[in-house]
């Protein structure tokens, strides 16, 4: 029978639409403005005394709050108004000091039954929720220069071990020059370098003032590898630092060859964000001092996890975290936690040299952190905050050296959680390459709210005009298209909520465009039905032919648009990606609603019975 869907297909459409309403529902519950308090030291717990201090600070500042939540080391307090966030943050930070990170946040209000189903609202981007935007540039020239300097030390050591006599090894910009007295020695060195460093150098030969020189220039691929490593390492470090801010859905991503974009929605204090992102941290490997060592050659430090425990270390540093190329936590043959460490050539040579004479002695890993400390002083009768930089050093590991260490070794004697933390600190305790802020923008919460209001108005205005036009031109079929359009918007919001997509202002523009494109497919179908009626087809045949013959046109048009949207997402950044995401999802949902949903409703209205005419408008 024409224009009759089987029961399973109608049920399938009904289930999809019902699920869409469920997973889009959390967006009806706007989040509360909140303050998040977290200890700056990893692993610390939120104590009742600290929570009491937070409450007292808010009460003293006459700031209303409710719904406090404590989850491990994090406390979250909801505020009555977003306007009170900055004042609440300042009051709590003043009360707790620099031992705690106080961040602005948004607390979800989604009902528990929706949360249990895995439903959650869309995340708002920087332009809708407000926050800060930084563009940071990595100094690749300085990083590559440092790597070339490491090659110089590495080559000198290796050539001595191979008994290849050289006059000198010098660095000239982005090149390493090796000088030899004889051509045979240069040839022997070239053969050794090609074997030891395959594909890393482009060697050139020169004769200068009686010396036979070998000039080594890094290949373009090797330079790219260095740059990629530096950028990835800096990305990891920045992501770990951003986590300290407690920001909901921060964005830290690569832009181009040497830049990193950091967007922190909900953060209004630019100085605080820069303070966290610019925090300098490093590691030092030192031997534990002998009992009879002079106090002038030793220093005493506390342990990071226990301030009451101390150890005396030698002042001489074996190597630093700058030499760590990789670190991972695992378990030894006895199932005890350990940290596997890899050093570069310079660090490995120094480690081997020192540990040859230090087997069965203990070596400490010292965490060195340069961080800001806030002090308060009176200026013209007004208390003002002043930030100074202080260096703090604490021991995170003190373990016995079981054998001579080289480029790869392990640290044992840790708990599992300590091993994981140590591996993380070794990997990302310091930036691989120096960075600087090249762009800085702040979006206020009021501007974000205004963007949301204007974006919502644009969607509503576009939707209203489309609904009216469809009713006027296509009557009952226009009403069917309008219902499908509403379902399409619900599907789009649900899909973006399920995958955790971030909604931005360009994303709202994509939704507006989707509204127009969704009814475009229905216009094609309805126009085709009108033509079939003019050609003498019966109403049932006209509906059947209209949907069937318009399908290929709709599919081709949407496929080409989808290809463009995918390309925009692949090559675009930031706002372009936001537009591409909503456009892509909108194309998929509009295809479903225009072809499946409207066909199902049309079948329910006209299918399976004798029909003399169709309420589709126009002259038929």
TrEMBL record:
What are the residue boundaries of the Protein export membrane protein SecD/SecF C-terminal domain, all occurrences included?
Answer: 435-600
Keyword Glycoprotein appears in the UniProt entry = no
* Alphabetically ordered keywords of this record: Cell membrane, Membrane, Protein transport, Translocation, Transmembrane, Transmembrane helix, Transport
Q: Where in the cell is it found?
A: Cell membrane
Q: Determine the domain of life of the protein's source.
A: Bacteria
Q: Where is the SecD export protein N-terminal TM domain?
A: 2-104
**Coiled coil (UniProt feature):** none
Q: Which Gene3D superfamilies match?
A: 3.30.1360.200, 3.30.70.3400, Multidrug efflux transporter AcrB transmembrane domain (1.20.1640.10)
Boundaries of every SecDF P1 head subdomain domain copy: 301-433
Transmembrane region(s): 459-477, 484-502, 508-529, 550-572, 578-597
InterPro entries from the entry? SecD, SecD-TM, SecD/SecF_arch_bac, SecD/SecF_CS, SecD_1st, SecD_SecF_C, SecD_SecF_C_bact, SecDF_P1_head
The UniProt record lists the Protein translocase subunit SecDF P1 domain at 232-289
How does this chain sit within the bilayer? Answer: Multi-pass membrane protein
The UniProt family comment states: Belongs to the SecD/SecF family. SecD subfamily.
- State the protein's purpose: Part of the Sec protein translocase complex. Interacts with the SecYEG preprotein conducting channel. SecDF uses the proton motive force (PMF) to complete protein translocation after the ATP-dependent function of SecA.
Q: Which PANTHER family match?
A: PROTEIN TRANSLOCASE SUBUNIT SECD (PTHR30081:SF1), PROTEIN-EXPORT MEMBRANE PROTEIN SEC (PTHR30081)
HAMAP family this protein is in?
SecD_B
Q: What is this protein called?
A: Protein translocase subunit SecD
Q: Which organism is it from?
A: Thalassolituus maritimus
């Amino acid at each position: 029978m024409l224009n009759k869907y089987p029961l399973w297909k109608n049920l399938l459409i009904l289930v999809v639409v019902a699920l869409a309403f469920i997973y889009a529902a959390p967006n009806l519950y706007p989040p509360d403005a909140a303050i998040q308090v977290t200890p700056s030291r990893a692993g610390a717990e939120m104590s009742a005394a600290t929570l009491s201090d937070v409450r007292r600070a808010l009460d003293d500042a006459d700031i209303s709050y409710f719904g406090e939540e404590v989850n491990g080391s994090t406390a979250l307090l909801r505020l009555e108004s977003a306007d009170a966030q900055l004042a609440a943050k300042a009051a709590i930070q003043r009360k707790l000091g620099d031992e705690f990170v106080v961040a602005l946040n948004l607390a979800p209000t989604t009902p528990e039954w929706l949360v249990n189903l895995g439903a959650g609202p869309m995340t708002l981007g920087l332009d809708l929720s407000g926050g800060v935007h930084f563009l940071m540039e990595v100094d690749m020239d300085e990083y590559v220069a440092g790597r070339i300097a490491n090659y110089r030390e590495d080559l000198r050591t290796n050539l001595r071990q191979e008994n290849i006599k050289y006059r000198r090894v010098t660095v000239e910009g982005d090149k390493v020059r090796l000088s030899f007295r004889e051509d045979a020695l240069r040839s022997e060195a070239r053969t050794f370098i090609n074997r030891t460093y395959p594909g890393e150098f482009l060697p050139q030969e020169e004769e200068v003032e009686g010396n036979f020189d070998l000039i080594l220039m890094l290949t373009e691929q090797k330079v790219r590898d260095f740059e990629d490593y530096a950028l990835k390492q800096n990305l990891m470090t920045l992501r770990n630092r951003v986590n300290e801010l407690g920001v909901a859905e921060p964005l830290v991503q690569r832009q181009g060859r040497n830049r990193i974009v950091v967007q922190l929605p909900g953060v209004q204090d630019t100085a605080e964000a820069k303070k966290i992102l610019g925090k300098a941290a490093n590691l030092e490997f030192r031997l534990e001092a002998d009992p009879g060592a002079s106090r002038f050659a030793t220093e005493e430090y506390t342990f990071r996890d226990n301030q009451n425990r101390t150890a005396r270390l030698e002042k001489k540093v074996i190597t630093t975290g700058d030499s760590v190329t990789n670190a991972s936590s695992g378990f030894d043959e006895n199932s005890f936690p350990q940290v596997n460490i890899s050093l570069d050539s310079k660090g490995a040579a120094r480690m081997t040299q020192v540990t040859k004479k230090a087997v069965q002695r203990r070596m400490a890993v010292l965490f060195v952190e340069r961080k800001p400390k806030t002090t308060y002083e009176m200026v013209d009768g007004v208390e003002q905050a002043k930030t100074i930089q202080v260096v703090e050093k604490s021991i995170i590991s003190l373990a016995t050296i079981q054998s001579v260490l080289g480029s790869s070794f392990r640290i044992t004697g840790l708990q599992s959680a300590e091993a994981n933390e140590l591996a993380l600190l070794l990997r990302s305790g310091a930036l691989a390459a120096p960075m600087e802020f090249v762009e800085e923008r702040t979006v206020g919460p009021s501007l974000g709210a205004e963007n949301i209001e204007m974006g919502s108005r644009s969607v509503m205005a576009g939707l209203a005009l489309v609904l009216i036009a469809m009713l006027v031109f296509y009557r009952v079929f226009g009403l069917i298209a309008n219902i499908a359009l509403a379902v399409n918007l619900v599907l789009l919001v649900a899909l973006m909520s399920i995958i955790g997509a971030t909604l931005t202002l360009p994303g709202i523009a994509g939704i507006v465009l989707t509204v127009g494109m969704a009814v475009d497919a229905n216009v094609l179908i309805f126009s085709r039905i009108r033509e079939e009626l003019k050609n003498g087809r019966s109403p049932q045949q006209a509906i059947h032919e209209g949907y069937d013959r318009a399908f290929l046109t709709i599919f081709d048009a949407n496929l080409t648009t989808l290809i463009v949207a995918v390309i925009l997402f692949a090559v675009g950044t930031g706002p372009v990606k936001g537009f591409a995401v909503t456009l892509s999802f909108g194309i998929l949902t509009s295809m479903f609603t225009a072809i499946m949903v409207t066909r199902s409703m049309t079948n329910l209205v006209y299918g399976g019975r004798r029909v003399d005419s169709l309420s589709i408008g126009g002259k038929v």
